Amino acid sequence: MDEIISNVKLSYPNYGRDLPVKKLFLSKYRRFPRKICITPASNENGTNVAFHVKSVLERIYGNYDIKNELSIVRRYFHPCSKKYYIYEQILSIPNINGIYINLNRCSWITNYTNNSKKLIQPDYIPNCHFLIVSEILIFYLEEHEIFVQKFANNLINDNTLSLIAPKIANLRLIGKHKNRCNGGSESFYLMGYIYMKKPRIDDLALSYGGQDFFHVHNKIVAWLNKKDTHGLVLLHGAPGSGKTHYIRYLLHCITNEKERYLIYVPSDMIDYLTSPALIPLLLSYPNSLLIIEDAEGSLSRLRTSSQSVANLLNLSDGLLSDGIQVQILATFNCPLISLDPALLRPGRLIVQYCFPSTLNIENARRLADSIGVSNIDQINEPLSLANIYAMRDENVAEEQDEPITSTCHKCVALNYGEEEE
Description:
Blueprint: H1 2-10, H2 21-29, E1 34-38, E2 49-52, H3 53-64, E3 73-78, E4 83-92, E5 99-103, E6 107-109, E7 113-114, E8 130-133, E9 136-140, H4 145-157, E10 162-164, E11 169-179, E12 185-196, H5 204-208, H6 212-224, E13 231-237, H7 243-251, E14 261-264, H8 279-284, E15 288-292, H9 296-299, H10 307-317, H11 319-324, E16 327-332, E17 349-355, H12 361-370, H13 385-390, H14 409-413
Parallel strand pairs: 11-14, 13-16, 13-17, 14-15, 15-16
Antiparallel strand pairs: 1-9, 2-8, 2-10, 3-4, 4-5, 5-9, 6-8, 7-10, 11-12
C-alpha cells in the first residue's frame, strides 16, 4: 500500500486540490469504482444540516471496524484552537477490499444546533466551534452495493450524527437616488444587510393574547413560506405591545430564506411603491417580503391623498401583484377602524391581528419569571410587553449579542484554513 501511495503522490500537487481518491482506488484495485455521495437528513423542512465529524468517526469506528490505514491526510491550521485539524481523510474497511470512505472539506463552524435530542458537545469550547463535513463520499466495487447502501442509509438517517445550520434573517433597505444629470429623475436600489437577531419568545400564547394567537401565527407562517403568492398582513396595537419583537421572531420562521428577499420600506416611501422607477427593482427581486413599520400616517382614511393606499392595493391584489409577486407585512399603532376600508377587503388581506396593549397581572408575572425577572412580586398591575422586558435582570440576555452567523469572526480575520501542514 505504501508503494501505491508513493506513486500517486508523485502526480499529486501538495496544495489546492482534493486528495486523489479515485487514483488511489484504481492503483490498488485496478478497477473503476462506483461512487455515492451522502448528506444527512434533517428533521426540519428547509434547514441545512451537516455531519459532525467526531460523531461520525466514533460511529463508524465502533460499528464497522473501520480505520484510517492510509497515510494521506490533509491538515489545516485552526487559529482559534491553535492546532492543526484533519481537513480531509480517507478511511478503509480492513476485512472488505474495495471500499474507501472520503471525508473531504471539513470545516469549523459556530452556532449550529443539534438535529436530535442528543446533545453534541463542541469540539472547541470557546465560541462553540464544531468540526463538520457537509457530505461523505464512498468509493466502492459493485459487489459491495448492498453493504454500502445499508451503511449509507444508517449514516443519513441517524440524526444524532448531524447538526443544523442557523437560520439567518437579514433585511435590505430601499435606497433612493436622484440623478442630477438627467433632469433630477429618481432611481431606487437595495442597500446593505441588517442581520436580524432572533428574540427569545418561550410562549407565544402568553405574550400575544392567548391560544387564538397560535392560529394567527400558523396562518402567517404558512403564507410566508408559500412561493409565488401575494397579499397583505396587518399587525396593529398600542406602542410597546410587541409588534416589532414578534416580527423579528417571525422572520426566522421562513424556511426558504435563501430564496426570499426581506425588504424594509420606510413608511414615507409607500407613495413610491408603484412608481415606474421602482417597479424594475421589484421585478428583479421576485417573492420578496416588504416590511413597513408605523404605517398609520400613510394608510389612514383621514389622509387627504390616497396614493399610498392605492399602491398597496395594486401590489397586494391588483394587476401588478400577478407579475411582481410580493408579500406585504405592515404594522401600525392606531385602531383598525382608522385605516382605509379598502385595505380590509377579503382576498387581499391575509390576516389582521390586534396585539393586546397589556397583560393581566397573572400573565405578566408568568412572562416576567420566564425571561429572568428576579422580583416578580413587584408586578401588581397590568403591564405592556415592553415594560415587562424592561424589568429583566441585566445579566439575562434577551437575544444573541451578535448577529447569528455560522462562521467565527476570529477565524475569518486570521485567514482560517489558508495554512496547510
